[in-house]
Amino acid sequence: MSASQFNAGRAHGEGQEKADQMMNTACDKAGDVSQASRETAEQAGGFMQQAGEKVSGMARDATESVKNTIGLGNEKTTTTTTARQTRAAKK
């Protein structure tokens, strides 16, 4: 084997090793991005669920307030608006 063939074989091996290292690094980065994406999606989903529950609660409170105002509400349910209206009516 000549020196040029030896050097070519060595260069090829080193190039292959470098390519493998770069591929492993790229795969690791892709895995990190994928994990971060999943975590962000979970956080966004949690936020949206909390916001939905808050809006639902506000709508329920508003419905009960209107029912109490027109006399169709459950007497056990008192909201701030209903309490104010009751105090105003007693005066």
TrEMBL record:
It comes from the Eukaryota. Residues 11-20 have a biased composition (Basic and acidic residues). Residues 76-91 have a biased composition (Low complexity). Coiled coil: none annotated. Residues 1-91 are annotated as: Disordered. PANTHER family: LATE EMBRYOGENESIS ABUNDANT PROTEIN (LEA) FAMILY PROTEIN. This is Late embryogenesis abundant protein. It comes from Platanthera guangdongensis.
